[in-house]
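B., you asked whether I could sanity-check this one before it goes into the benchmark set. Here's the sequence:
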Amino acid sequence: MLGGLAVAVLLQTGGCPTSPDGSMDNPGDPISNVSLARDVQPILAARCTGCHSDGGFADRAGIPMLLSEGDSHAAVTGVASDVDDTLTLVVPGDPDASYFLEKIVSDAPARGARMPLFSGPLDDREVETIRVWIQEGALDN
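And here's what the prediction gave me:
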């Protein structure tokens, strides 16, 4: 049972406490306040930059989407896909209209194959982190 002080803290902060860096303490907690640098970029670095970096497979194949730190936001946010200019990679605030998200969740995206191409799919937490980042406006933060 929570004491009065704990209840007051939860009410004032809007819910479960977070770590000092703003991330959620419990991996099962809902994801919110997603930061590109803190939350999304580590996923891209681990799962995407092997191909989507200078000299990587995608770069050599003529797909100029660089997902390394400092490049990723400009490479995807509000940008049309190189393979189909009717598809926008990341539509801030609209994950369902974001082709980037479709590429990491769909076994049959509108164009091409599911990403990452040469490894298994992103796990549910990684996908949800990217989805929430887009929903929250795809900020360069």
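One thing to flag: Residues 1-25 have pLDDT under 50 and may be disordered. Otherwise nothing jumped out at me.
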